[in-house]
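re: the backbone from monday

yeah here it is again, tokenized this time
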């Protein structure tokens, strides 16, 4: 069965087309991705959801009518047209992370404008979760604003942080106040690398505050766009005092989980 998962986030839209294995019992790892696509969401979640699915189908070499079951998820799931089901990103990220790493018991998703921590059972279903969707602290948007304040590319932050000899202390996790702190540190001629390291530590501490309300158990999987920042990854391992695994394509975990859930619902 060909299934599709479309994850429309606040900043990026993602889609995965999956060859779902009908012969496997439900709640086992399922299927092989045939196509994937990622692009900015832009001003129209509806258009982004349609375009990203077209991109994944093109990579898979399939036409739209090949999809037999589909799920929309993410911030913009309500705007995605033509899907069979709409499922919350909590369930989809849990399913996708467990598919990639069946030993996963905690999933931390740091997306464009929200952050989530999810506890899983042995079959990959959510037991409990915490979510920060009221503030940009600890998200991709936080890093974008700080990179602009430092006048560096977003992709440079991890390398800068890795080269820091010491870490600048930022007292605020609020994006607005933290930006002011960064500007003040630059005015004091503080090294940019040290500030970058401080930003990674700030995200790690903000995430730690969220996960402290849960029972975090290994294996811990980090996904979402912020997971691509190696500085944040290292800082979070120090903050949680445990190993954290980042999948090869951390931004696609929710879309993959949506495609799996589409197959499970249709089976």
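seq for it, each position gets an aa:
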């Amino acid at each position: 069965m060909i299934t599709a998962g479309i994850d429309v986030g606040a900043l990026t839209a993602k889609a995965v087309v999956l060859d779902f294995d009908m012969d496997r019992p439900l709640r086992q790892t399922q299927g092989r991705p045939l196509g994937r696509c990622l692009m900015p969401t832009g001003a129209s979640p509806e258009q982004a959801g349609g375009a990203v699915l077209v991109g994944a189908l093109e990579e898979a070499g399939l036409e739209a009518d090949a999809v037999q079951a589909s799920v929309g998820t993410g911030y913009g799931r309500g705007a995605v047209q033509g899907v069979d089901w709409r499922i919350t990103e909590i369930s989809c990220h849990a399913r996708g992370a467990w598919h990639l790493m069946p030993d996963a018991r905690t999933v931390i998703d740091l997306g464009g404008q929200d952050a989530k921590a999810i506890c899983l059972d042995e079959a990959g279903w959510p037991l409990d979760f915490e979510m920060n969707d009221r503030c940009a602290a600890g998200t991709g948007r936080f890093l974008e604003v700080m990179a602009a304040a430092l006048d560096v590319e977003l992709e440079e932050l991890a390398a800068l942080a890795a080269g820091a000899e010491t870490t600048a202390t930022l007292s605020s996790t609020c994006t607005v106040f933290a930006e002011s702190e960064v500007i003040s540190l630059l005015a004091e001629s503080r090294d940019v690398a040290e500030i970058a390291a401080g930003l990674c530590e700030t995200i790690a501490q903000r995430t730690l505050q969220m996960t402290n309300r849960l029972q975090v158990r290994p294996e811990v999987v980090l996904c979402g766009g912020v997971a691509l920042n190696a500085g944040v990854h290292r800082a979070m391992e120090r903050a949680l005092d445990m190993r954290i695994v980042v999948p090869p394509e951390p931004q696609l975990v929710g879309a993959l989980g949506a495609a799996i859930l589409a197959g499970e619902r249709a089976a």
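The longest helix spans residues 192-211. The domain at 140-245 is CATH 3.30.420.40 (Nucleotidyltransferase; domain 5).
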